[in-house]
Amino acid sequence: MIESKLKRLEGTTTVGVVCSDGVVLATDSRATAGYLVASKMARKIYRITDRIAFTTAGGVADTEKLVEWLRAESGYYSMSVGRPMSVLACARLLANIMNAYSAYYPFIANILVGGVDGSGPQIYFLDIDGGMTRETMAATGSGSPVAYGVLENEVREGMRVSEVLPVAVRAVRTAMKRDVATGNSVMAATITEKEGYRELRPEEISKLLA
């Protein structure tokens, strides 16, 4: 059963990039079940707080459970401590949850946790075992090798959100052209200290692709 669930990690493409003034996240919107396109408008970017979000490649039910868990825990943290949860604390909590369940019934998901706080913009990659690494640029899913080709060629240290955004969107769109499990449309979001979490409208993404 776990083997069949692991196959779900083979689909989709998600991208996360740290910029000088924030974080950019982008994904496709296709959900697959084997050879079936189960949904053309699947959400793969989730807002956790005003300053933290994550992308996911994996099982829908597992992802939704983790989203509910993290939203609740971040809310409890803010009320009890009196300040928002940091990006590192959110990523570490999620990693601990995933690791605790990994031996028997793991959450089938590869996750990019991105956000901004007093330590600046950050992105963390989490695998299904709860392993966590801090990254400046990352991609997950079956289309990630194609996406990395675009990112590695065009992203440079010190770039701003406005400069990276069209590159991230194009990386996902390029993966859609070569990976059958990645497709339909591109979704993107930015997180900055000034604006917090903001999802791009379809017409904004169309302009970036044009």
Structural overview:
38% of the residues lie in helices and 30% in strands. With 210 residues, the protein is α+β, with helices and mostly antiparallel strands. It has one domain: Aminohydrolase, N-terminal nucleophile (Ntn) domain (Glutamine Phosphoribosylpyrophosphate, subunit 1, domain 1). A hairpin with a 2-residue loop joins strand 7 and strand 8 (120-126). Helix 4 (144-154) runs antiparallel to helix 5. The termini are far apart. Mean pLDDT is 93; it is low at 4-8.
Q: Main traits of this protein?
A:
210 residues, Glutamine Phosphoribosylpyrophosphate, subunit 1, domain 1, five-stranded antiparallel β-sheet
Question: How are the secondary structure elements laid out?
Answer:
Elements: H1 2-6, E1 14-18, E2 22-28, E3 31-33, E4 36-39, E5 45-47, E6 52-58, H2 60-81, H3 87-101, E7 109-117, E8 120-126, E9 132-135, E10 137-140, H4 144-154, H5 161-178, E11 186-192, E12 196-199, H6 202-209
Antiparallel strand pairs: 1-2, 1-10, 2-11, 3-4, 5-6, 6-7, 7-8, 8-9, 11-12
Helix pairs in contact: 4-5
